[in-house]
Design a protein that fits this description.
rod-shaped, mainly alpha, single chain
C-alpha cells in the first residue's frame, strides 16, 4: 500500500509538471505568435525571405527593362533614324502600318507637287491625307509612350511593394531567430516530462 501510494503520488506530481511545461510552451507560442508545423525543417519566415528576395530581384530587372524601353522610345523620337528603329515600336504592328501610310502620303505629295501647284484639288487632298496620316502616327506614338510610362510606374510600384514585404519578412525571421532557442528548450522540457510521466 505504501509503495502504491508513493507511485501514485509521484505520478500525480509528474503529471502536474508535464501539464505545467505544456502550458508554458503554449503560452510562449501564443506570446511570440509562433505557428509550428510538424516536420518543418526550415522556418516559414526564412523561406518567405528567400522567396521575396528572388521576387524582388525579378521585379528590379523588370523595372530596369521597362525604364530602358521607355528611355529608348523617348530618345528614338528625337533620332534621325526614325521611329522604325525604336525597340518599342518594333512590337507595335499598328504603329508601323500607320508610319507606312504616312510615308506613302509623303511620297504622293512629293510626286503631285512636281505636276500641280499647291492650290490644285489633288494636291490639297494629298496634303490633307498626309496631315491625317501624321496625326495618326503621332496619336499612336503617344499611346505607345503612355503604355510604356504606365509599365514603368507599375514595375516601380511592384518593386516598392516587394521591398516592403521583404523588410517585413526579414523582421519576422529575426523575431523567429530570437525565439527559436527558448522554444526548443520548452519543447525539450515538454518531451522529457512526457517521457518521464
Amino acid at each position: 500500500d505504501l509503495a502504491l501510494s508513493f507511485i501514485s503520488s509521484q505520478a500525480e506530481s509528474l503529471k502536474k509538471k508535464m501539464v505545467e511545461s505544456e502550458n508554458a510552451l503554449q503560452a510562449f507560442r501564443e506570446q511570440q505568435k509562433i505557428i509550428v508545423a510538424k516536420g518543418m525543417t526550415l522556418p516559414t519566415a526564412i523561406r518567405k525571405v528567400e522567396d521575396l528576395t528572388g521576387a524582388l530581384a525579378d521585379a528590379r530587372r523588370k523595372r530596369t527593362e521597362a525604364e530602358t524601353l521607355l528611355k529608348a522610345a523617348q530618345q528614338g523620337l528625337n533620332s534621325s533614324e526614325g521611329i522604325e528603329s525604336m525597340t518599342a515600336v518594333q512590337n507595335q504592328p499598328m504603329l508601323l502600318r500607320l508610319k507606312e501610310a504616312e510615308v506613302d502620303a509623303q511620297r504622293k505629295v512629293k510626286e503631285l507637287s512636281q505636276r500641280y501647284g499647291s492650290e490644285h484639288p489633288r494636291m490639297i487632298a494629298a496634303q490633307s491625307d498626309l496631315k491625317a496620316a501624321q496625326e495618326n502616327v503621332s496619336r499612336q506614338l503617344n499611346s505607345v509612350l503612355q503604355t510604356l510610362q504606365k509599365d514603368v510606374e507599375v514595375a516601380r510600384s511592384n518593386e516598392v511593394s516587394l521591398d516592403q514585404s521583404l523588410n517585413a519578412a526579414k523582421a519576422d525571421a529575426q523575431l523567429f531567430n530570437r525565439t527559436e532557442f527558448p522554444l526548443e528548450r520548452l519543447q525539450r522540457e515538454v518531451e522529457s516530462d512526457r517521457q518521464i510521466y
